[in-house]
C-alpha cells in the first residue's frame, strides 16, 4: 500500500519559529566564541607581532619621509663612467662583428624582375 503524503505549507507561524531558532542558534554560537582560551605572550608571538608591524603598509607609509639621501661621490662618478665605457665598448664590438658579415639579401635576376614588376604595378595603380 502506497501512502501519499503532502508537504506542510510554510505558514506564518512556522516561519516565525524557524527565525526564532536561527536567532537562538546564532546567540549560542556567539556566546561560545567569546569563551576562548587566552594565549600567553611568548617570545615567538612577540616576534610575530613585531614582524607584522614591520610588514604593515601603515607603518611603511609612516616611515616614507625618514630616508637619507645619498650624495654623489667621486667613487660613484667613476663607477658610472666605467659602466658607460663598458656599454659603449660592447656596442662598438657588436657593430664591428656585424660589419664583416655578408648581406642576407641577394641581388639575383629573379629579385630584380620582381622589383621592376612591383614598380610597374605601383605606377599603374
Automatic annotation (TrEMBL):
Protein name: Nebulette
Gene Ontology molecular function: actin filament binding
Gene: NEBL
Cellular component annotations (GO), alphabetically ordered: Z disc
Coiled coil start-end: none
UniProt xrefs under InterPro entries: NEBU/NEBL (IPR055297), Nebulin_repeat (IPR000900)
PANTHER family xrefs: NEBULETTE, NEBULIN
Pfam families assigned: Nebulin
Keyword field: Actin-binding, Repeat
Signal peptide as annotated in the record: none
